């Protein structure tokens, strides 16, 4: 070794500072001799070599020096002092797009939004797009508007049309009660051929559903010794 290079090496050795490396987690701290001024990319590379961090994880190293986060720009420089402590953390690799919670929540939110059927006429689609995109009506209102048939809207309009007359002749409570009973009667539905009601009184020969528990069944079980 030439005298000049030996002197330069000795000068570099004297200028080096000892830095303590502390990783986030249960690992033990280590010390590393580093130049007092070096780039962020060189600092990450030296730390990755000392802590045996893979090349793929080197770019995800985050450093904290004197209570401040070290910038992640490779061409930036860091000034170190003897006795400094560097806190090291490796940012986990983000999950795949189909495993992210935000994407899942977004897909779930899209599924919960009200959508009109594909067989809807073109003018209803135009009205729906205008109310949703331009006026930004909530899904609850859109559902109420497009879920009812034309017959239902006519009945609602007639109800509001006759409501002032009911108030004028002071039969408002009767009008409201009659509306409630009418809604119940219209939503009773019709029983298909072969259907059996849960109430035996409505069935032919008062036939009961299998497994129905009543006083006769309990008495019969007691007499048979099943209790």
UniProtKB/TrEMBL annotation:
Taken from the record, one Pfam family name reads SAYSvFN
Answer whether the UniProt record assigns the keyword Membrane to this protein. Answer: yes
Which keywords belong to this entry? Answer: Membrane, Transmembrane, Transmembrane helix
Regions annotated as coiled coil: none
Domain called Ubiquitin-like: residue spans: 17-90
UniProt-listed InterPro entries = SAYSD1, SAYSvFN_dom, Ubiquitin-like_dom
- What transmembrane ranges does the database entry give? 140-165, 171-189
Protein origin, superkingdom: Eukaryota
What name has this protein been given in UniProt? Ubiquitin-like domain-containing protein
Species name: Paspalum vaginatum
